[in-house]
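ERR on first pass: missing label on line 2. Operator R.T. fixed the label and resubmitted. Corrected input:
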Amino acid sequence: MRITRAEVEHVGRLARLALSDEELDSLTGEMDAILDYVEQLKALDTEGIVPTAHAVPMENAFRPDEVRPSFTPEQALSNAPDAIESAFRVRRVIE
Amino acid sequence: MTVRYETVIGLEVHAQLTTNTKIFCGCSTEFGQTPNSQTCPVCLALPGALPVLNQKAVELAIRTGLATNCQITPRSIFARKNYFYPDLPKGYQISQFELPVCEHGWLDIDLENGERKRIGITRAHMEEDAGKLVHGDTPETSSSSLVDLNRACTPLLEIVSEPDMRSADEAISYLKKLHQIVVYLGVCDGNLEEGSFRCDANISVRPYGQEELGTRAELKNINSFRFIKQAIEYEVERQIDLIEGGGKVVQETRLFDSNTGMTRSMRGKEDAHDYRYFPDPDLVPLVISQEWIEEVRATLPELPEAKRTRFVEEMGLTAYDAEVLAADRKLADYFDACVAFSKEAKSCANWIMGDVLRKLKETDTTITDAPVSPERLTDLLARIADNTISGKIAKTVFEKMWQGGQTADQIIEKEGLKQVTDTGAIESLVDAVIAANPDQVAEYLGGKDKLIGFFVGKVMQASQGKANPGMVNQLLKKKLV
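pass 2 clean. output:
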């Protein structure tokens, strides 16, 4: 086993996923198979190869420091489940 | 035997970079605007929006790195730091984890005993800020937190020190030095209250002689140097008391309450430490060439330390004067401009540190807006040097220059303040004063030498301050025999 059920549960909790027992079982199996598959890469000799951080061989995509128009607060909040005083409203996060 | 404890402090400073726009989009970074009026698909994390790196933010990061003796990483990458919080729309913060833009730097701080100490800088990495949460205080909002995403995606440089500081004073000394440098460089406005320069402190204690570090607590977001000192001192006491009482320090984030002067545990972020960093596939690697580094290096201003040394060694100022003048880049520029006109560095320094700073304070003005320019100030000093006016009259002239925008010469002319150096005119005043005060004359002649000051004062008064004091003195001594 490359991943335990407890680890899947932990990662699920970090991702705020409510997983049932059945889902945890099947996901553990699936993720284990995926990790097994990826494990095959270990057979390659990567000595002297720079770790890849990006799939596209490209670097330095920059933007000049120029202000562009923003949304109005109304536009910004148009998809908000709840809003008040020009702000998104959420359940209080600190007592 | 009682155990003595050593304090170990490492600091993380978040400096907001002075760009006009956010780090990954073109929204303005201006402070204090209507909530959510500076947002776009990128900083709101709308599906499909892609971040593009602000080149200016990189340049400012390089500047800071060079000024803090860091190595600039030739190829650095951005990573996602994953956690959920309502001020973080994407569910991750774009930051740098492996391969930050700057590494292995240091700053020297001056200790109370006159020694210098080198504080290591582990790394400095670029990242985006989160939004701002306001916890409701009206009946309608008391159970809510309000989210303003104007600040979300604002460029920050997080500068992480080594755990090299051993007291609150050392920590403050390091922070002030770093603060001065970033403000000098113009990479950060340094405003602690608006959160442009924020400090987190990692604090632990250990028995003297122990190699291994104690468990640390992290103090978050303290917004003044005074509070940072208080918070560190309180936290050190708390940890020692805890250990002495048989307890254990828990690794946690604590908040400082400036009303009580105490720190308290911050609940609700327990699992926030499992960030699962991974390279952000939306951003390509950042490659910084040696040419780019040299280009930035060429634009670095003279830093405070170099300025202080120059003021002392080349201009003959005292260490204290040099410190005061070099503390603020604009003030130092003003001083340098004065010296360019006058060469009388010491006298320029005295006037700036005395009358100029006093007027700035009284009128709540910054040095850049001072109504008396360096050229005009040195004109005034020249009139003292060539005996046109006395130092005392110069104060009056300076006051009028500050109010009216006229030159020293115009005011001296208009107000008739020109020093009287005509021997005949002064002589008649001296004679009158001697004639009017026979008792004092007798005392003086009887050996009470100090009375000379009395006579000089009387003559100066009679001349409305315009007589040349040196000449008055001379004439009095000649006549009072």
